[in-house]
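tool_log.txt
---
The assistant was asked to compare two proteins side by side. It first ran the structure predictor on the initial sequence, then on the second. Raw inputs and outputs are pasted verbatim so the downstream comparison step can read them without reformatting.
(1)
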Amino acid sequence: DTILSTAVRVDSLKLGTITNSFSYTLGELADNSGNSGLKLFQDQLLPLPPIAPVSLPDIDIDLGEYLQTAFVTEGFIDMTITNGFPIDLVNLIYQLKNKIAGDIILADTFPLISAGQTVSHSKKITNQTVEGNLVLQIINLESPGSGSSFVLIDTLDEVTITYSIHDIKVSSATAKFPQQNIVNSTDSFPIQMDNG
């Protein structure tokens, strides 16, 4: 079998859904916001102090298996935040960027994710140049704490962030054929090539 590894220009390409999740514990966020002593109170009922604004490590999103660059005519990113903490989270701000050029493709804010709740936002991407390597950045996350209310301190409680990039339609892409049989793939990758 011959494997095509050279990038080619295509007129149209539709990508499948790209989904991933990542979690951060209450202990990790407390450490990052200067409340590293919180772990000393594990399994105790106490008022939980505020979590100062923090940013989270960048999340790389690799589309390079399918494309190098593309002009996205339409697409969507769904962000779902599940707050497993006993306190509210506020002002979660994220942005999706091209990793090399650094330009922002989209940004969004979750003003409030109540304790124990899940909140989802869907944002549309239109007429954007997208690289094969993207980065998702949580540039702000904070909490007012529990105030005077007593809550159970469990530093292993998690906030889970799930992203789903789907229904991406691109034009004038520089695409790569992955090392797999596209025809028999579960996802559909219709490709029309210009003979010119």
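(2)
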Amino acid sequence: GDEPGAMTPPLSLVPKPQPDDGSSTGEDPLDLAVVADRIGWEEKAILAAARDRGARAEWLNDGELCCGSREDLPAAGAYLIRSRSFVRGPLIAESIASGASDESVINSAETIAICSNKVTALARLRQIGLPTVPYRLVLTRADLATALDVLGCPLVLKPVYGGLGRRVMLVRERAVADSMYDYVEHYGQNFDRALI
């Protein structure tokens, strides 16, 4: 419990049995539904923290929802969209939102779209007065040379689109940057060729 050093109980994806006082129909709404394609350590921590605070919280596998609207899902006070898919997450968020300002859908389709594009996310952060890291948009090999001149090494190259640390490259030496860009040109597809 609340004692210092107390261990958090292990997370089970099987719903905990609820005491039956005769008044429950078994359809009690969840307090929190975590909508995700898989359960990673962050989702486990979110579910465990919610349960530790007495909330009914469960994972909804986004690959098994087949929802057309919120009525197709288990009832919940909040739906936390944590899909790692840049297709599924926004589509599910849009499908289950009751309107543009539905605060019960955490990570709206609009929020996911903003956060999926690092240039857009940085611009929004600057617009509201939050500090951001210096960056340069790298669309060509010439842009990479300019970014290296301006920012120096070490620097990090990241795809504009994407997340979860995929395709992130640490450049410690300028001489290695060209080889890294060769990799991006050869293996990058469409949006993966835009870097910051």
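---
observation on (2): Strands lie at 30-36, 57-61, 76-81, 105-106, 155-157, 169-171. The two ends are 44 Å apart (CA to CA).
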